[in-house]
């Protein structure tokens, strides 16, 4: 976590599509080809959650000291809930499960900060990205 500009830019860039999916309908864009923005937002959110849980799994694999929680179990529970919401229902339910999952994974990161495994700066960037994603998803869900 020494290279702050790189991971900061990547974290913030990862949140930009959520804003786009929330704001494009105001510009009259409701879909790309055959895919609605709701479906694309659910697809993108699922990909980002896969990435975040993968980071947690890697942390569990490579961390030699005891962790505050078992990241394999904790992240898998969150991932499976999102996966079920994504596969078994429509885009709205998938987004709703993601709206719960993003803050849960941020809470896991808070626990990692308490253990000294991540920096305050990293958690701050994750908080900003999680807030952008969650507010965008909430806007998507409430706007139609």
SSE blueprint and pairings:
Blueprint: H1 4-23, E1 31-32, E2 35-36, H2 37-62, H3 71-88, H4 91-114, H5 120-143
Antiparallel strand pairs: 1-2
Helix pairs in contact: 1-2, 1-5, 2-3, 2-4, 3-4, 4-5
Overview of the molecule:
The chain has 144 residues and is mostly helical. It has helices at residues 4-23, 37-62, 71-88, 91-114, 120-143; strands at 31-32, 35-36. It has one domain (4-143). Helices cover 78% and strands 3% of the residues. It has a two-stranded antiparallel sheet with strand order 1-2. Strand 1 (31-32) and strand 2 (35-36) form a beta hairpin. Helix 1 packs antiparallel against helix 2, helix 1 (4-23) runs parallel beside helix 5 and helix 2 runs antiparallel to helix 3 (71-88).
Share of β-strand residues: under 5%
Average pLDDT score: 90
Q: What is the general shape? A: globular
The number of strands is 2
Specify Rg, calculated over alpha carbons: 16 Å
Structure classification: mainly alpha
The run of helices and strands is: HEEHHHH
The span between the termini is 39 Å
Total domains? 1
pLDDT below 50 for ≥5 consecutive residues: which ranges?
none
Roughly what percent helix?
over 70%
Sheet bearing the most strands, described?
2 strands, antiparallel
Count of discrete alpha- or pi-helical segments spanning 4 or more residues? 5
Provide key terms for this protein.
2 strands, 144 residues, 5 helices, mainly alpha, globular
């Amino acid at each position: 976590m020494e290279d702050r500009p790189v991971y900061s830019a990547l974290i913030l860039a990862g949140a930009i599509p959520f804003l786009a999916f929330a704001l494009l309908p105001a510009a009259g864009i409701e879909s790309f080809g055959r895919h609605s923005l709701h479906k694309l937002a659910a697809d993108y959110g699922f990909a980002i959650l896969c990435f975040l849980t993968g980071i947690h799994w890697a942390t569990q694999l490579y961390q030699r000291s005891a962790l505050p929680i078992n990241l394999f179990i904790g992240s898998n529970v969150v991932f499976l809930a999102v996966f079920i919401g994504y596969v078994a229902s429509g885009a709205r339910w998938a987004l709703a499960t993601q709206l719960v999952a993003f803050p849960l994974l941020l809470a896991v990161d808070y626990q990692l900060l308490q253990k000294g495994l991540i920096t305050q700066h990293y958690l701050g960037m994750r908080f900003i990205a999680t807030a952008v994603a969650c507010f965008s998803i909430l806007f998507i869900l409430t706007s139609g």
